[in-house]
Amino acid sequence: MKTTCGLIACAVSMPLAAQAAPGDYDCLIEPSQVIDIRSPVSGLIDKVYVERGGAVKRGMVLVSLESSVEKAAVDLARFKSGMDGPLKSSETRLAHAVKKLGRKTELADKNYTSAQDRDDADAERRIAESEALTARENKQYAQLEYNYTASQLAQRQLRSPIDGVVVDQSMHPGELAEVGENKPSILKIARINPLRVKAILPMALYTRMKPGQGAEVVPEKPLPGRYATTVTIVDKVVDAASGTFQVRMELPNPNNALPGGVKCKVAFKGL
Q: Residue limits of the CzcB-like barrel-sandwich hybrid domain (predicted)?
């Protein structure tokens, strides 16, 4: 976020800084993104780790659902995926069958044993190969099953998809979180760095507004300061009834110094 002076300095040395000048237009400072936090699975809410007004970071755990059954399933799947006995046993049998076939083949070539004995040894080798393959497949299946149960458990921890602040909490521990867009969200979080500034302008200015155009935003009192920003979007559809169009700007807001939902005035460079 850029300002032409510090927040305190502006309030002291520039008491008229927040007053609108000729050519200023009404605008609104809003969060750049608002997200409803819902659960992808149904379950009882165990813990909510944040509260309204609290800051959150991307990836931070916000809510956990009761998950004793899922944790037990993960423990069982982890144990199965680590079982090496069946695979080692099948590999040992295969190695023995290969050696036995080699000896039987050598003896059969010298007519010390029958061709049937050699064929039986070859059949044993083939069976041992199949058993070893089955053991490897079971090992891989157990690992996939573990990954699946771990994913199910992870779904019971709801993480923040963005850096932002909590703006609402609709549900609390002990309540049932349900799946569906029509179900209440648990939390609502807003991204306020950067902020989004929207202004409604008269049609007469349409040809003079371009993306990248500089502007200066003055939030309503008692918030001090003037903030440099740039136009990011000029609407391609005009409201015929009012003869106006919308312009959007992006306003950097490090440290979340400015709140969202604030009225403002904006002056565009070159107008």
A: 35-178
Amino acid at site 250 = E
The pLDDT confidence band at residue 23, using thresholds 50, 70 and 90, is: low
Closest C-alpha to 32, from 264, 246, 232, 239: 232
Task: Provide the H-helix boundaries in 110-254.
Answer: 115-154
CA distance 245 to 238: 5
Average pLDDT over residues 75-94: 95
Q: Indicate whether 82 pLDDT > 60.
A: yes
Pick the CATH number of 7-66+162-268 from 2.40.50.140, 3.40.718.10, 2.40.30.170, 2.60.40.1820: 2.40.30.170
